[in-house]
User: Fold these one by one.
Assistant:
Number 1:
Amino acid sequence: MKIGELSQATGTNVETIRYYERIALLPKPGRTGSNYRDYAPGHVERLNFIRHARGLGFDIADIRSLLDLGGDPERDCGEVDRIAGGHLAAVERKIAQLELLRKELRHMLARCEGGQIADCRILEALGDRARPAAAG
Amino acid sequence: MKIGELSQATGTNVETIRYYERIALLPKPGRTGSNYRDYAPGHVERLNFIRHARGLGFDIADIRSLLDLGGDPERDCGEVDRIAGGHLAAVERKIAQLELLRKELRHMLARCEGGQIADCRILEALGDRARPAAAG
DNA sequence: TATGAACCCTGTAGTCGCTACAGGGTCAAG
DNA sequence: CTTGACCCTGTAGCGACTACAGGGTTCATA
């Protein structure tokens, strides 16, 4: 299987696949006589795992750990749970933070009554660090 | 005012201040005889604006536009409104996306019953691209 | 006067996860 | 025999910083 086919099969950019190889996230495949990468079904599986985890926002260090753990079937599931739980917590923190931003942005926008820059409540709110809109 | 004082006054890393100068977001200050940067009150105000806007997640291109607009007091407020509104929409999209991730992660974690890696539902869910947990 | 700490300077490289070239080689079809 | 689609390596770019290395300055203290 050539890199273009792996790309098609997994919906992954060719450059991204080569990048994953470079950082040793995806093992080096064999090569054809003309030096083309030659992938096996295991590569498809692993790359699907990686792309799904990336889609869920896991960073590459976490994915590396998850893949390592997956290669050790007798080991306890706790570490996997810890990584996924840690990531969920991070996502929840991020959501909470963005909800605060949303509130402040909505507040700012609600105060805008059009008119001239000189009277712009949005610029005023941005400049006024001592009294951010979310607190008022 | 030296860079360390500006840093204190605005809660901004010294390296970040120099970075803002390099990308011409913060105007070059005067220099003392010993070549130290010498900031004026206007710099404090501008940097406060920048930091507040960055805290709200505006990117530097947007902040540049907002600062430019602020320098033109007779101009209509519409462009400012458009930038802030666009950013609010982006924040809302991001929240929606993270809420989906949260759902899928919670689902994955809920299925974990401990035990061995070989039976790990989390790794199974991650590997199973055809049927992501959020859809089931 | 010497010394040491705390500050300041420039310039460059690293972070993360890709993405986008430049400059070439390979292969199948017409 | 040429065209075009694919493949290769290597390097540089993105955004928004952050972290040095390797030096200069200032000020208080001994």
Number 2:
Amino acid sequence: MERRTRVRFAPSPTGPLHMGGVRTALYNYLYAKQNGGDFIIRIEDTDSNRFVPGAEKYIIEALRWCGIIPDEGVDENGNVVETASEKHPHAPYRQSQRRSIYRKYAEQLIAAGYAYYAFDSSEDLDAIRSAAEAKGETFTYNQKSRTGLKNSLTLPAEEVERLLAETTDWTIRFKMPENTVVKMDDLIRGHIEVNTDTLDDKVLWKRADELPTYHLANIVDDHLMEISEVIRGEEWLPSLPLHYMLYKAFGWEDTMPRFAHLSLLLKPVGNGKLSKRDGDKMGFPVFPLQWTNAAGETSHGYREDGYFPEAFVNLLAMLGWNPGNDQEMFTMDELIKTFSLERIVKAGAKFNPEKAKWYNKEYLRMKSDEELTDLFVPILESHGITVSGCYMCPVTADFEKKEFSKNYVKNVVSLIKERATFVQDFWTIASYLFISPVEFEKYGVKAGAAVEQKPADPRRAADPRAKVYDDAATAPFLAKDVDKFWKEENYTLAQKAAEYMNSCGCAKDKQTLETTLEEYIRGNEWPMGKVMNCLRLALTGASSGLGIADIISFIGTDQLVERVAFAAERLK
RNA sequence: GGUGGGUUCGUAUAACGGCUAGUACUCAAGAUUUUCAUUCUUGCAAUAGGGGUUCGAUUCCCCUACCCACUACCA
């Protein structure tokens, strides 16, 4: 009989979910959905020392933002299920609330000779470890060393009984068999063999907090929850032999899940896995959602930084997996259809923040103008702009009162969306379609504002053009570009042109404005580029930006005249 | 140190023994434009090294190098 596909994502609530963790959850989810199975969340909080308040909620909210909705373990309100029901038969899904389950399984292993009691205190073991280290050796609690340590294999039965009853810091350890080759199969990595002599006697259960360690809890829960495939990070590969041995010891080999170990996400430059530091240093988030730790330090989140969840999911899916063809854009449904474990790449993937931005840009372009407008309105409001009306209402713009109709905003969005990567870019790109510029490039952007040139190709790190100017005043290209055209002989012409446009009585659509303005300037045999650039500087405050006719069609010729006059006065 | 995993342009990847090693991002150049951006065209750029096996190796095997993970009463 075909086994029902049941996979789980089992995070431990020790902090915010890393984007690599999100990817693991995503792959689990895709696999479950593709096979018509269940995606289960289980909270692995067996280490009370590392528990972080809020982490569990964060993880669930992050997955939800990505559109990864669990079938089991978490209810509709995003709470981890604590009592069993038809939909959540294996509750509780928090391991700390399952402690009564694990001990009997640990005892079962002892009874069958697969495990034993160990009475060495952590201090004793620490001492032995440092002593070994001093001699340049590494201590491992294994087949060889256990004969000389305090445990139920070396101590007389009465002494074991006494210690069990009287002390509380003992553990149960797995009795790793000697010289046995464990033959394993990984869905991604293929066949792997390991000799048990290289393995140690892992702690399975801790009397001190009456909780199992990961290894025991994981195997027991995966078995009880009828997990069919375990898709997890590569860091677990070294403990796969132990897990195989545990399934065997319990006699659960028939229903043992199949395993797939995912490679890690690596930092963009240099070596090592992606960390919070890399994000801070290079200015990209490593967490799906913003996170503030106990010390009050806040880390960026993809959501807060303006990424669309679809873009985030898409870019994550493509990090270490590919469909085998050139398709790069995938909806969640397409991913569910196309995903396969066979096409997962074995090597670790370096994260590329540039590509992440590219994805968001692509998704932004695919959004409707209305959808983007709705996202832009709150940003406008935060700048003191009032947006009123509906998408059926007429287009209106009042620069005095800073009141604009929804359709005006929509038209702006439609014009500028190709230039943006994030919705919040809209304001930077087109603030002058809502308010008059008061700063002009000639005097530099505000001191301290970073003027960053195009990111340089890493191969050309020595390229002097890659320099980043942190003081706009010292960025020569800006002032120079402006000085080139902002001269009295030019801007007086611009003023005349503006006045002409205001009085010509021509239609105010973009096309008419453009031809009228061009014909006027050409007719007078004025230098087209210089006059246009003067107009742009006056209208936008910058030497680059939208087309002049576009801008005028939005702000109107009254604003045109006003702004040119203001600039001529300010920049005299 | 030990064990396991990995290695194709700067990055993500394609090519499951067979065309000139393909695509995307980045970068560069050109075209378009009143500027910037967009768009279009073009370009730069890789099989870690060495041995095998084979008519033929990016692909299979071995060695070396490098990278990663694990080596906790953490997950």
